[in-house]
Design brief:
single chain, 7 helices, globular
């Protein structure tokens, strides 16, 4: 057998192997991505769960005059005051302009004050006002109720495992985002 014919057979065998592998990935409907049905895709489940939780939680905190746009910043400031706008934006995983709008709204409503940094005059540190601190005791029970509803059928070990997996997913996505930026 000459080398040309042998080479074609090897290429043909490789192609056949690839098509058999692809065929195995296909399901009864013949679609390659049937394993990614909407309700079976982690991304969709996480996003849909977040939308459902946000609707329920937003309704609870709206009665205190708090919207989701400013809630994240309040939540962060309740744990650590005196952050700069850029530090707050990074902690909230928001871009600068969105963070600036939320902080402007918090300031306008009297929930925060921006105070110049003693060491660096260009920086403004964000501090809660007494009104912003009072919201803590109004909103935290709503957080507690929402979390209890979401986790009602989970035992403590399942709750811990879920949180661990969500943290890991977030780390994986953040690391991938960094790798993608480096490639550009």
């Amino acid at each position: 057998m000459d080398d040309d014919v042998a080479g074609k057979r090897q290429k043909s065998a490789g192609a056949g192997s690839r098509s058999r592998t692809a065929a195995r990935r296909r399901t009864k409907s013949g679609r390659r991505y049937d394993h990614l049905k909407l309700d079976e895709t982690v991304g969709f489940l996480v996003a849909d769960t977040n939308r459902t939780m946000t609707r329920a939680f937003s309704a609870r905190i709206a009665k205190h005059g708090v919207g989701m746009g400013i809630f994240q910043f309040l939540r962060i400031l309740w744990e650590q005051e005196g952050l700069t706008q850029s530090e707050l934006a990074a902690r909230a995983r928001m871009r600068g302009p969105s963070a600036a709008g939320a902080l402007h709204e918090l300031d306008r409503r009297g929930f925060v004050r921006r105070i110049g940094d003693g060491d660096d005059g260009r920086k403004l540190r964000v501090h809660l006002t007494p009104a912003g601190r009072r919201l803590y005791d109004l909103v935290m029970p709503d957080i507690d109720v929402t979390n209890r509803v979401m986790l009602a059928d989970f035992n403590p070990a399942e709750q811990k495992a879920l949180k661990t997996m969500l943290h890991r997913m977030r780390r994986n996505l953040a690391a991938n985002e960094i790798r993608e930026k480096v490639r550009r």
